[in-house]
């Protein structure tokens, strides 16, 4: 109990027992001045002082061990009662039909609950319509009225109910509103509208790993692709089904020359197997990469 209610309670109990402050203070081994300040709410006494005062008044404080003992006794009583009820419920020698009915209802409820849980897990794992026609994986939520896709010039249109996703050169739009840029291999997830939120697009980026080359070139490969390196006089990088070789000042991709590369240049392998060579001096194009540790 906090002040000033604590002081008021002590004062009330003391007066009910017809004790003066000096009398109670003497029994608690505190000064009368201290007791006066406690009753007036000026100071908050320590726990052992509170226990001493209430013990002298012949009652327990609100935070005394007696309250916790009563709480444990209450819980124990109800636990034992519930255990006896369950034990009796499975004893089919008495009130057989009633108990069978209760157990049947309980079993059906448990079974329906487990079935709903499994169905929900299955639905979560298979709740999207997937499109991967241009290297960007697009997931549209199932259960909407109306799906479709078509091209118009350089733009891909994906319908999901009343919502329309557009993709043009990696730029993603939802209902004609720009939502962000997606690169080859990225995943774009459409979250359908709710009562409080509009439909929106969520972007999950391909994670890359950075590999330093022998001649000062920096390589970026998709992290999920297996990588093997070999140097037998010619540096080989095997990434998934693709191969990159450094021969002199030239770089070869799957046996085809990609031109000259120099120190500080950047070579990027996209998930669909396209190679980008960024010259450190000439090419000012900015690329954003996502790494995992």
What is the 3D shape? Answer: elongated
Strand content: 25-35%
In angstroms, what is the radius of gyration?
Answer: 38 Å
Low-confidence stretches: 63-68, 120-125, 289-293
Query: Helix count?
Result: 6
For the largest beta-sheet, the strand count, sense and barrel status come to: 5 strands, antiparallel
Please bin the fraction of helical residues. Answer: 25-40%
**Class by helix and strand content?**
alpha+beta
Distance between the termini: 52 Å
The sequence of SSEs as H and E is: HHHHHHEEEEEEEEEEEEEEEEEE
- Residue-averaged pLDDT: 81
Side-by-side strand order of the widest sheet: 3-4-5-6-7
Secondary structure: number of strands: 18
Can you tell me about this structure?
- Helices cover 32% and strands 30% of the residues.
- The protein has 293 residues and is an alpha+beta fold.
- Strands 3-4-5-6-7 form a five-stranded antiparallel β-sheet, with no helix packed on it. The chain has a five-stranded antiparallel β-sheet with strand order 12-13-14-15-16, with no helix packed on it.
- Strand 5 (163-168) and strand 6 (171-174) form a beta hairpin.
- Mean pLDDT is 81; it is low at 63-68, 120-125 and 289-293.
List the helices and strands and how they pair.
Layout: H1 5-16, H2 21-28, H3 32-39, H4 47-57, H5 65-89, H6 96-125, E1 128-131, E2 137-141, E3 147-152, E4 155-160, E5 163-168, E6 171-174, E7 177-181, E8 187-191, E9 200-204, E10 208-212, E11 218-222, E12 227-231, E13 235-239, E14 242-247, E15 250-253, E16 256-260, E17 266-269, E18 275-278
Parallel strand pairs: 2-8, 11-17
Antiparallel strand pairs: 1-2, 3-4, 4-5, 5-6, 6-7, 8-9, 10-11, 12-13, 13-14, 14-15, 15-16, 17-18
Helix pairs in contact: 2-3, 2-4
């Amino acid at each position: 109990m906090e002040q000033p209610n604590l002081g008021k309670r002590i004062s009330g109990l003391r007066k009910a027992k017809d004790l003066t402050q000096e009398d109670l203070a003497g029994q608690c081994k505190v000064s009368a001045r201290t007791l006066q300040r406690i009753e007036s709410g000026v100071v908050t006494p320590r726990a052992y002082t509170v226990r001493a005062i209430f013990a002298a008044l012949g009652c327990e404080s609100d935070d005394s061990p007696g309250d916790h003992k009563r709480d444990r006794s209450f819980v124990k009583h109800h636990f034992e009662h519930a255990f006896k009820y369950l034990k009796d419920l499975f004893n089919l020698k008495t009130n057989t039909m009633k108990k069978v009915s209760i157990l049947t209802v309980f079993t059906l409820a448990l079974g329906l609950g487990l079935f709903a849980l499994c169905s929900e897990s299955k639905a979560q794992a298979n709740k999207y319509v997937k499109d991967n026609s241009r290297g960007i994986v697009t997931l549209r939520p199932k259960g909407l009225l109306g799906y479709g896709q078509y091209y118009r010039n350089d733009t891909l249109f994906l319908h999901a109910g009343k919502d329309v996703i557009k993709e043009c050169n990696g730029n993603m739009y939802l209902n004609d509103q720009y939502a962000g840029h997606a690169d080859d291999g990225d995943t774009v997830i459409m979250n359908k509208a709710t009562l409080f939120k509009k439909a929106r697009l969520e972007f999950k980026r391909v994670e890359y790993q950075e590999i330093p080359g022998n001649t000062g070139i920096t390589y970026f490969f998709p992290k999920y692709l297996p990588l093997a390196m070999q140097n037998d006089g010619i540096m080989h990088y095997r990434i998934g089904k693709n191969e990159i070789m450094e021969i002199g000042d030239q770089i070869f991709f799957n046996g085809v020359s990609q031109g000259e590369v120099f120190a500080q240049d950047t070579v990027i392998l996209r998930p669909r197997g396209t190679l980008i060579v960024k010259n450190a001096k000439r090419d000012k194009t900015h690329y954003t990469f996502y790494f995992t540790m």
